[in-house]
Amino acid sequence: MSDIADRVKKIVVEHLGVEEDKVVEAASFIDDLGADSLDTVELVMAFEEEFGIEIPDDAAETIQTVGDAVSFIKGAV
Amino acid sequence: MFDLTGKNALVTGASGGIGGAIAEALHAAGANVALSGTREAPLRELADKLGERAFVVPANLSDPEAAAQLPKDAAEAMGSVDVLVNNAGITRDNLFMRMSDEEWAQVLEVNLTSVFRLSRAVLRGMMKARWGRIVNITSVVGTTGNPGQGNYAAAKAGLVGMSKSLAYEVASRGITVNCVAPGFIATAMTDKLNDEQKGKILTQIPAGQMGSPEDIAAAVLYLSSAEAGYVTGATLHVNGGMAMV
């Protein structure tokens, strides 16, 4: 796993309080990891801070899975 | 009784009677306060009176850009915004049939839309802190209606629905959103009423007198406190019994 993927995983584990092995690329924040819509807003906020990027609202809507987040962030940093 | 030491509060409309009293009450409870309003001189005067822990952040909330800038200015002055009191309000009274689009739009912009913008802007910090208080000053006329105030009553009623919706969304994050609904309070705004109007109003108030800005400030202080953490989506009516809702 790349450094970005590790950092994303760490944020997700901390924020959603889920077990690390559940945070796989294909895992959906809402369907698989138990996030509600406000959790996803907070995750985006946490990603923005961790990576020093801005994630616009329309892009945030496309980030549904852990893999989505990693690939968006890779393209943005 | 309530201790707000270390909390940072932004009060809009702090140049007015009620807003000034709110700022004083929060400050007296230990909060740092950022005083906002359109007129800088009275804000400066209040800040000087309060002394330490008071900051002046003027803003004209009818200007969307100024409304966007205000939370940033307040956070810069104090470090964060933990308590937001949306008190700023204007009136452009007119009979409904004579009310212009402009009178309608101005009142909705300042009394409702700017509250949406300011609240949205401060939520990020409150979510991270897992603590926040938003107190919106509405009005008894938002519940009862008032002839000549179709725009004002619409905006004030709108605040209640907005506050409840937001309260739902952020309750799990330690953020409460409540309204305080003043009845008739002796301020510059009610001074515009003539004696006949005032006399009529007093007959409708079981308490037999107009309220004071301090009556409203006490309600805001309570809703801003840690002790009110389980109160959200509520409207606290402070009106001497004129509308028991």
TrEMBL record, chain A:
GO terms for biological process: lipid A biosynthetic process. GO terms for cellular component: cytosol; membrane. Keywords: Cytoplasm, Fatty acid biosynthesis, Fatty acid metabolism, Lipid biosynthesis, Lipid metabolism, Phosphopantetheine, Phosphoprotein. The keyword Calcium does not apply. Pathway: Glycolipid biosynthesis; KDO(2)-lipid A biosynthesis; Lipid metabolism; fatty acid biosynthesis. Its main location: cytoplasm. Transmembrane segments: none annotated. It is found in: Cytoplasm. HAMAP family: Acyl_carrier. This is Acyl carrier protein. The keyword Cytoplasm applies. GO terms for molecular function: acyl binding; acyl carrier activity; phosphopantetheine binding. It comes from the Bacteria. The modification O-(pantetheine 4'-phosphoryl)serine is found at residue 37. Belongs to the acyl carrier protein (ACP) family. 4'-phosphopantetheine is transferred from CoA to a specific serine of apo-ACP by AcpS. This modification is essential for activity because fatty acids are bound in thioester linkage to the sulfhydryl of the prosthetic group. 4'-phosphopantetheine is transferred from CoA to a specific serine of apo-ACP by acpS. Carrier of the growing fatty acid chain in fatty acid biosynthesis. It comes from Paracoccus caeni.
From TrEMBL, chain B:
SUPFAM superfamilies: NAD(P)-binding Rossmann-fold domains. PROSITE patterns: ADH_SHORT. GO terms for biological process: fatty acid elongation. GO terms for molecular function: 3-oxoacyl-[acyl-carrier-protein] reductase (NADPH) activity; NAD binding. Homotetramer. Its EC number is 1.1.1.100. NCBIfam families: 3oxo_ACP_reduc, PRK05653.1-1, PRK07231.1, PRK12826.1-2. This is 3-oxoacyl-[acyl-carrier-protein] reductase.
